[in-house]
Amino acid sequence: MAVQIIALVVFAGVFLVAELRRTHIGIVMFAAACGMGLVVAGLSLDDVIAGFPIDILVLLVGVTYFFGIAKTNGTIGRLVDGAISRVGDNAGLLPAVFFLLTGGISAMGSPLGGLVMAPIAMSVAHRRGIDPMLMALAVGTGLSAGGFAPTSLFGIVTWGTAASAGIGLSPLTLFAVAIVANLVLLALAHLLFGSRARARRAARGTVTVAAASGSPAGTDTAPAPSGGTAGPGDLGEQVEREPAEQRPFTWINRVTVLAMLGLVAAVIVLALLGNEPDVGVLAFAFGAALTLLDPDSGRGALSEIDWSTVLLVGGIITYVGVLQEMGAVDLLGDLAASLTVPLLAAVVICVVCGLVSAFASTTGILAALVPLAIPLIQQGGVPGWALICALGVCSSIVDVSPFSTVGATLVATTGDPAQRPRMTALLTRWGMSLVVIGPIVLVGALVLPATAF
After folding, report:
1. What 8-state DSSP symbol labels residue 129?
2. Distance of alpha carbon 120 from its chain centroid, rounded?
3. What letter would DSSP give residue 244?
4. Rounded to an integer, what is the distance from CA 345 to the centroid of its chain?
5. Count of CB atoms situated within 10 Å of the CB of 269
6. Could you give the CA distance from residue 419 to residue 11 in angstroms, rounded to a whole number?
7. DSSP SS3 for 166
């Protein structure tokens, strides 16, 4: 047991040291896996390296390259512009629109790719009188929902790891759970912060009408900048009246959209037919066709391949493979099972995932802790698909914490600097509350019914 404990302490230590030193966790973890496997576990180098997830590498490279082409040739930008221009003056729909836009981009390989919407969303919220907290949560929930698509990183790591352990989990089931959970959170955000946004827009409308009619109510307003109105306090920002000019779709943009729809349709159809679609190979196939049609976009998309994430996931999973060979994963499973109440063990595992993920890489946590939940599943205490879904979503919904990349970006891009301290405080409360509430609700909604029936 002492050897297994040493391996687990080193595992946690590498996370801590790499985070403090701001170094790449995957690279340090891979070196630690080789050292631990050779020196402590007595494994051969071939056995250690065999744990590197080649299948996940193919998935990540293929998907990020394919959607890198769509980004490079301007297709994604045009789709975003078109969606925003169709909203017009109906500001109440904007949080839902940005949820969909962020989710769509997040589903295109890397969840953090959805963060390209953060500066746009927070700027629009500032100009349209929408509570920045509501817009931040719209972006955060969209990113979390889209990240669990079969074509995106969170989904690939979660169901890919489950599949390698023999756990029957459909990628579409995982995606559906993530969408429902994040839609519930978005609805809650509307209840908590939507009324303030409506009040600000109503006040803005009153000031605008009063100023236009020349009544005393408009005498306190500052001169309006070109194309907008100004008012007291936080109503003084410029209001967009004209939508951005819509860039026309070129022939390669239309072909790219067809390829994107074809990739999604192929994944869904193959899954419904009972086959296991290899998303990475499909993405390579569609990407190869696009790069032959437009070589410039193909060359430009090479820089979009997410090698950093490939190394992150690869290093962590390689070390987890060493832990499995040493019996350390089984040891943790036995400790979780010793709680005697499987549902309590499931909640504890999900709380740990959420707490660590609020401060560290969600991808790294998924790669590290999904395998650690497998022994509890194999002992028959809880249904595998339900626990893996709950664990994955719990690790993602806390990403709006201001101590993570997502939350920090949302705070930094808030249009009104005076709102940033408020945003930091509210996002901290939201993220930390979900560390506890998320596991309780998700385990209760997924694991408990599946266990009962």
Report:
1. T
2. 18
3. P
4. 25
5. 11
6. 39
7. coil
